[in-house]
């Protein structure tokens, strides 16, 4: 059964502590009825081109649901409204006050002293190879039954496979982290998936892509990272991470992706209300996910 889209409503003033990192308007809120952990309330941005609401909310919710299907640990997302502004809430990946996040840029610079932590765009030191080194002493995320011998990097490679599947373009070095707890270090569940699934495209273009498979394919193939060195295509980036992961991890992630049916994808996407995601966008997102899954699986079988 897919999870239903159930929006939580907040009034101004509900917001508590500001979250200083990242770019959007967002605040930490306590929601005792949903458990002990705080939630990060993130507003969907207004599109500067015409003042419409950008689809970061449905993208973030949908990617979380897809992550569950793929077996990628990710922050739980619920849709929300802050008065009349669309938003999501993201449940803290920290289980209690004894845990802290150490972001990718800090993890990388601890391993490579010359690593430039402050770069916003393409970073000459940011490669899957460097990340594998930096995660060498880190355990995989908690609360999952990983196959014996699975490393943090084996899981991180799965994050990149998910990004390539969902056209997620935002895996910069502050959008993944390690959870520190006393002297334990574990990869954090994945978070910040709003920049995905073509959330910024216009419906007129989506209509054209739905009518012309080659157009959609060209669009999907252009999807690239702006942050890793060489600005690789998302599929190439996922493969370079998976090729550096263990053989069992490669097989594990490919099998998980292979098992996902079009029906399963459609049943997730169809939960998003039509007032938030147009009919055309529903169809586009399903078609994009089907296309990207095929591209990734074809890439695997041809290696
Ligand atoms: N679910 C979460 N649990 C813990 N920390 C989070 C979570 N989501 C976001 N954060 C923290 O808040 C920062 C900003 O949130 P993020 O989702 O990345 O928003 P933005 O899109 O503005 O970058 C992250 O870099 C991370 O430090
Ligand atoms: Mg972020």
Can you describe this structure?
It comes from Microbacterium lacus. This is HipA-like C-terminal domain-containing protein. The chain is an alpha+beta fold and 303 residues long. It has 2 domains: 84 residues, 2-Layer Sandwich (Phosphorylase Kinase, domain 1), CATH 3.30.200; 203 residues, Phosphatidylinositol 3-kinase Catalytic Subunit, Chain A, Domain 5 (Orthogonal Bundle). It is 39% helix and 14% strand. The protein is built from 10 helices and 9 strands. A 6-stranded mixed beta sheet has the order 1-5-6-4-3-2, covered by helices on one side. Strands 7-8-9 form a 3-stranded antiparallel beta sheet. Strand 8 and strand 9 form a beta hairpin. The two termini are 35 Å apart. The structure holds adenosine-5'-diphosphate and magnesium ion.
In DSSP terms, counting alpha (H) and pi (I) runs of 4 or more, how many helices?
10
The coarse overall form would be globular
Widest β-sheet, arrangement of strands: 1-5-6-4-3-2
Q: How far apart lie the N and C ends?
A: 35 Å
- Beta strand %: 5-15%
What kind of sheet is the major sheet?
6 strands, mixed
> Which secondary-structure class do the elements indicate?
alpha+beta
Q: Bound small molecules, which ones?
A: adenosine-5'-diphosphate, magnesium ion
Q: What is the N-to-C order of secondary-structure elements (H for helix, E for strand)?
A: EEEEHEEEHHHEEHHHHHH
Low-confidence stretches: none
